[in-house]
Amino acid sequence: MATPQDGAVSAAAGVAAAGVAADQPHITLYWLNESRSQRIVWLLEELGVSYSIEVFHRTQDNLAPREFEKIHPLGKFPVVKVTLPEASLAPKKELILAESGFITEYLCGHFGQEKDLVPSRYPKGGHDGEAGTETESWMRYQYFLHYAEASLMPPLVISVILSVLKGSKVPFFIRPITGAVADKVFAGFVTPTLAKHFAYLESQLETAPNGGGYLCGKKLTAVDILLVFPLVEAKKGLGHLDMGGGKGKLRDNFPKLWEYVTRLEAEPGYKRAAAKIEEVEGKPKL
């Protein structure tokens, strides 16, 4: 039975929690291997908050362990626990947060005011509160906060499921049939759908405000962190495929997107998060 990895909390918490006053909130990230939990580690690194990690491992069936449902009834990762100090006026001293977008929005709203991870909603000297006067960076931020999970992840998840149909877990005598079905769905739906997403992201990077570099402008934001998991996985798993209307691979047809993902992988916070995972797991997972 999968259980939290022994020593994971203390190993992960060491540097992050050192020197933090007891009257400050503490974050516990419940982390599952090969899941979307990884990007929350990067977010916590950028926020500079006190945090620790409790590691869970997938079962032999590649599922999340059932005992995690005691923490959240759906048993899905990532989940974050916010432990508030005794002096807090909050009626509950522990908050359980689920869903990457909500976790990101809540943590940035309470702990990221000075971190520039969320663009300003209104321009300086603008008409605050008036519809239609928001900055383009903020509008993009709000959109991509939901886009990452609602639009981009579903076809990527389908691609993972299809790869299972072609893999060794399927009995060899029916694998030719399941493999043929998977190839047909890949060619007819997954590849063109992902190519459309990649073309869209390419155009968004080309038109990003203030000179670009990131999706919301020239600065890293929390939505870049949210998108790193699906895009890095796509780069690793789909980079060899012909993608898009041009000739060649993903890198050839979507050069700005490829450069963007490579830039995210080179971010200091991304590397710190990868090192943190390696410290806990013994190998990088980002």
Task: Report on this structure.
By secondary structure, this protein is an alpha+beta fold. The protein folds into two domains: 8-111, Glutaredoxin (3-Layer(aba) Sandwich), CATH 3.40.30; 136-267, Glutathione S-transferase Yfyf (Class Pi), Chain A, domain 2 (Up-down Bundle). It is built from nine helices and four strands. It has a four-stranded mixed β-sheet with strand order 2-1-3-4. Mean pLDDT is 88; it is low at 1-20.
Sketch the major β-sheet.
4 strands, mixed
Spans of at least 5 consecutive residues with low confidence: 1-20
Computed Rg? 20 Å
Mean pLDDT: 88
Number of strands: 4
The spatial strand order of the largest sheet comes to 2-1-3-4
Secondary-structure-based class equals: alpha+beta
Query: How big a fraction of the residues is strand?
Result: 5-15%
C-alpha termini separation: 25 Å
CATH architecture of the largest domain: Up-down Bundle
Protein name: Glutathione S-transferase
InterPro entries: Glutathione-S-Trfase_C-like (IPR010987), Glutathione-S-Trfase_C_sf (IPR036282), Glutathione_S-Trfase (IPR040079), Glutathione_S-Trfase_N (IPR004045), GST_C (IPR004046), Thioredoxin-like_sf (IPR036249)
Domain GST C-terminal: 134-286
Pfam families: GST_C_3, GST_N
